[in-house]
Fold this sequence. Notes:
The protein is α/β, with parallel strands linked by helices and 418 residues long. The chain has 3 domains: 2-127 and 298-312, Rossmann fold, CATH 3.40.50; 131-292, Dihydrodipicolinate Reductase, domain 2; 335-413, Alpha-Beta Plaits, CATH 3.30.70. 36% of the residues lie in helices and 24% in strands. It is built from 14 helices and 16 strands. A 6-stranded parallel beta sheet has the order 3-2-1-4-5-6, sandwiched between helices. Helix 4 links the parallel strand 4 and strand 5 (92-95). Helix 1 (10-21) packs across helix 12, helix 4 packs parallel to helix 5 and helix 5 packs parallel to helix 10. It is elongated, with a radius of gyration of 24 Å. Bound molecules: L-homoserine. L-homoserine (HSE) binds next to helix 7.
Amino acid sequence: MKIAIMGYGTIGSGVAEVLRVNQDILQKKVGEPVELKYVLDIRDSIPEDNDKLINDFSIIKDDEEIKLVVETMGGIHPAYEFVKACLESGKHCVTSNKALVDACGSKLVAIAKEHNCNFYFEASVGGGIPVIRTIYHNYAGENLTEITGIMNGTTNYILTNMREKGADFDETLAEAQRLGYAERDPSSDIDGFDTSRKTAILLSMASGNRCRHEDIYTEGIRNISKLDFLYAGKLGMTIKLLGSVHQIEDQYFAYVVPMVIPKSDPLFSVDGVFNGIRIVGNCLGTTMLYGMGAGKLPTASAVVSDIIAAVRHQNEFQGIGWSEKMISIEPMSSNAFSYLIRVEGTYDDIVDDIKEFFLNEDSVLSPIVLDGRNDEFALVTDIMFEGDFMENVKEFEAKTGRRIFHFIRTKKDNSDDI
Length: 418
Ligand code: HSE
């Protein structure tokens, strides 16, 4: 099969490298050579070190020999127009572009179906971790009740370093940028939007329907401090940025927030730039996928796995159940959590107020106090709906004159009797 790559940045050149290094393995696995014919780079000045480089998309679209196109340009335009035109010409398309998949994925799957070809996007979530195919193929017979993951290597690297070095956010981000682990403009990672797009794609895969990442409540990690880690550490817990989806009958919950998690959670040990995705199914129980969620070759490896699928299914649409029906996500206020809260002052004279607003009648206050600090303490609240919690914070502050300096969600509870 002759193929083209559109976009010759880190991932595109990684795909070319994997195809070259593993060409014999690939040929054996799919029964025919996979030959790279063109590399499209639409930047004004393109490097001239590659005889396959072109800068005119129509050469790819009009070349009937090209049966498969890899899109690694990033962004929505012109990636969408190019992929759409290729699918309409019956060319299989493979992408690593989460913005494109999040915004247009269900539409592109429908166009692929209409033209009896395939649109694959394994590399758009979790880099080298095969999470997309696992959900829509391997777990097609499951009622997936929860998918929760660490899906952003940059923020996981920063949080891991804050915990290990006892450092604050700003200095850790600056060091991550100096070492090349964080972008110069890190907003998409640290404000949670990268995770939110990936979470939307996973919810789409699990539900078989469309959702908007803009509807997913998203908080990043800018407000996490070394004090938060000290309190979490006293509980034997740590803090991770999680993207989470829950399906309860026909209700969908999704959010991206930093959470305090216990050692017993398999995501606890996912450190540094690694990603981990925990999937819960009604028959499956809990499973976790772990690996490199970013990087040139891991991501290229996922793209190549899609190329193999396309060669194997070159004469048929391989059903990805992704309808264009839009699902609605329940408001954040209807999720129930317990919260690690940091309260101003000492606790002796406000025990009753704490109990009134944050604990159940029969719960005992177990304050967490850091050595040498009497300006604040922390506690873990009982489980309550987020809407009630927000009201309680306001009322507690008004009644006691004490501030809640910060809160981080811990356990999520899906039971009816809260
Ligand atoms: N910026 C992303 C990360 C790259 O840090 O994980 C992969 O989407």
